[in-house]
Structures are given as C-alpha cells and as structure tokens.
Specification:
Blueprint: E1 6-10, E2 14-18, H1 22-28, H2 30-33, H3 55-75, H4 82-93, H5 107-110, H6 116-130, H7 136-142, H8 149-155, H9 161-174, H10 183-188, E3 190-193, E4 196-200, H11 204-222, H12 225-246, H13 255-262, H14 269-276, H15 281-290, H16 297-307, E5 313-317, H17 323-337, E6 349-355, E7 366-369, E8 372-375, H18 376-379, H19 385-389, E9 392-399
Parallel strand pairs: 4-7
Antiparallel strand pairs: 1-2, 3-4, 5-9, 6-9, 7-8
C-alpha cells in the first residue's frame, strides 16, 4: 500500500515534504489543524500588517529545519536512528501545540498556573494514547529524559530549530529585515561533542549575526510598544469578562471557554485537552464582538479598543516611574472618569519589560576550534559578554489617550 504524504509550498523555505505514516497522521489531526487558527505573533499584525502567519506554519517550518539538522549531524558520523529522527520531528512538530488564542498573550488569563509547555505535554500524551504509544520516544526527547541530550537541544536550547525558524519566519512576515538569520548556514555548522550541540568555528559569524538579530527582533517586534499596549488591552478585556462572568453579570455561550473560567485545577488532562483544542483566535474575537455594545461601560470601552485598534497611550522609559507620579496620575484618572479605585486597573496599568540576548544561566553556545570548545561570548571578537548577558529593563505606563494631556 502506498504511504500517504504531502508537499507544502512554504513561503520561507519553498517545498516542504511531510513524511507519511505517523507524522502525516499527526499533521492531519484536528489538534494540529487548530494551529492554523492561532496567530504566531498574537496582535503584532496591528503594527506589522503582514504578521498574520500561524503556529501551523511555524511548526511545519521547525520540522523542516530539524530534518536538515539531523541529516547534517548524521553526515558527520553521529548515529541517529530512523526512529530517533522521526521522534525528533514529532517532538518539534508538537512543541507549540499547547499555545492558546493569540499565542502567548492570553496564557495567564485562560489557563492560570498552566504554561503552554505543560499543555503541549498534555496534548502529546493524549495523542500518544490515540496512536497506541507511537509518541513514547518523542515525549522522552521533548522532556529531555532520553539519553541523547543533543536531540532535545535541537528542540529546546540556545540554538534550537524553534528559534531558527521563528526568527526567519517572523522577519519574513513583518518585513523587519534586521532579523534575517542564516538558518541553513548555522545548521550546516552544527556538530555534536560530548552529547551536546556545538558550532564549528567557521560558523562563528553566523552565530554573532543570530544573536544580534534576536536582540533587534525583541525590541523592534516582540516588545514593540504598540504591540505591548495592544496585548495588555486584550488581557484587561479578558480579565473584565472573567470578573463579570463570575459575578453573574454576563453569560458566556462558549462552553469550552466556560470550562476554563470555571476551572481552577487541571487534574483531568483529557478534559483539559478536549476543551482547549476547541479554542482559537476566532473564539476570542467573537467574544469581543459580542460584548462591544455591553451595558458595562468598562467592557464596552475595552472591546471597542481591541477590535478597532483604539489603543491607550503607552510611555516607555529606562528609569522607573516615581511612585508619587503613579499616585498623582491614578487620582486624575479616577476623578476624570468618576470611577472607584477598584476599576482603575482597567484604565491605568504599568509594569516592566526585560530582555537579554545571551543568558549565562542557559546552556552555552560553544564554538569548536579543533578539539577545544570556547563559549561564544569569549570566542567572539565583536560581541561583548557584559552586553550580551546584561538584562535590559524598561518600564511602561498605559493610560487613556484623553488623559495624556495631563502629562
């Protein structure tokens, strides 16, 4: 019997072959198809209109890159069996399957206390039951409990295929050329030493470019101030819906969303997966549209802001805002809108964002010179360790535009 297979024309890499057998069946599964309805970059399309690509595309792209990496590593004399190769592809294919609507944005709202990594594992375990244990090895690699640690590093590490794909893909769809990385060049320079992924010395400049690109993409795209305020507004919208629902002031018709609004413990993994697999960006958008004319003025304001991109003003500084300034602004907002302090959180919010390019706490990126391994921070004659590892913090406040003249 002829094995089923599929070819996808990916805008980033060109034609990608989806292998037959278990991988093909996983891609066809409703759990995985749901990723077509989850935007990779959440609300980033409000700033970069082209950023409407999905988690589905990213997962397929990551699988393509890990296939290249496996071929390169095997060509350098390291044994990777057919079963290990397939399991690694399955693990990277499913590494983001636990993402909820608008990706990272609503993670703490819909499933507080349950990360998307934990949800991904829930999904993998349920799929494993359905596929009669065929995902056993993939789950071991995903959890880093398999003896070949470098396979896990291809999925989750400083130079994993997840990062290599999302940087290149996000660059392509946003049009932010500063994020372009030579993913195939980096993959060709991969080597395994003492069960760890390292990079041959010829690839050092590609790694430098990768680290710089990652830093630029975080500040220019992932932590862009307008993206940040849009995401905060969406979170506040869901918080208000949750508050009104729990007080019995509004009804939620979506039974899958209701399950998570009513649930505080996630003991029944199958039930969690069944409900979560039916939630995507469209459910949240529909919920917002249903409440855009709400009798609750706060919910009405929030829904209108998200749906029509009528965003609060955001101010970002490198120094902390003085508490006296925060208190003064809070008083002005409460007086202007005639609201109690309990409702202030929907009009005025503040916090901090941070990023560092290369963390000393993570696995190092080691460059192979002959038989010697040197950390990229020491090997590079262009990148400064103190700059690479420094955590850059910025502080923000979000206020209604009508209040901005008070500043």
């Amino acid at each position: 019997m002829k094995t089923k297979q599929k070819i996808i024309n990916d805008p980033v890499y060109g034609f990608i072959n989806i292998p037959g057998g278990t991988i093909f069946d996983i891609v066809e599964h409703s759990y995985f198809q749901r990723l077509r309805r989850i935007k990779q970059l959440g609300l980033t399309y409000l700033v970069y209109p082209g950023a409407v690509h999905t988690r589905f595309q990213h997962a397929i792209g990551s699988m393509y890159l890990i296939s290249l990496a496996i071929d390169v590593i095997k060509s350098k004399g390291h044994e990777i069996t057919q079963e290990e190769a397939e399991a690694s592809k399955i693990a990277i294919l499913l590494h983001d399957i636990g993402h909820g609507p608008f990706s990272h944005v609503l993670e703490s709202c819909i499933t507080p206390g349950l990360s998307h990594e934990e949800l991904s594992l829930f999904f993998m375990q349920e799929l494993n039951k359905e596929f009669n244990g065929k995902l056993d090895l993939a789950i071991k690699i995903f959890r880093n409990s398999y003896h070949k640690k470098f396979l896990h590093q291809l999925i989750s590490g400083q130079l994993d295929m997840d990062r290599l794909d999302y940087l290149r893909r996000d660059t392509f769809f946003t049009g932010v050329t500063e994020g372009i990385v030579g993913s195939e060049r980096i993959i060709k320079m991969l080597e395994v030493v003492d069960d760890n992924l390292v990079v041959e010395s010829k690839g050092i400049y590609s790694i430098e470019k990768f680290l710089i690109a990652r830093r630029l993409m975080y500040w220019q795209v992932y932590l862009h101030k307008t993206v940040l305020v849009a995401e905060k507004l969406l979170i506040k919208t869901l918080e208000r819906i949750k508050e009104l629902y729990q007080c019995g002031k509004i009804k939620i018709d979506n039974l899958h969303l209701k399950y998570f609004l009513d649930t505080t413990e996630y003991n029944d993994e199958k039930k969690v997966v069944n409900h979560f697999s039916m939630l995507d960006d469209f459910d949240i958008t529909c919920l917002i549209k249903q409440n855009i004319n709400s009798d609750d003025k706060i919910l009405k304001m929030l829904c209108e802001g998200v749906l029509n991109r009528n965003l609060p003003k955001i101010i970002i500084k490198r120094e902390k805002f003085e508490q006296s300034f925060i208190d003064k602004l809070s008083d002005k907002i409460m007086k202007h809108y005639k609201i109690p302090e309990s409702e202030l959180k929907y009009y005025f919010y503040h916090g901090e964002i941070s990023n560092n390019t290369y963390s000393n706490n993570d696995e190092k990126i080691n460059i192979l010179y002959g038989n010697e391994l040197i950390d990229i921070a020491e090997a590079s004659d262009m990148l400064n360790l103190s700059v690479l590892s420094k955590v850059v913090k910025k502080y923000y406040i979000c206020i209604p535009k009508s209040i901005s003249n008070f500043l």
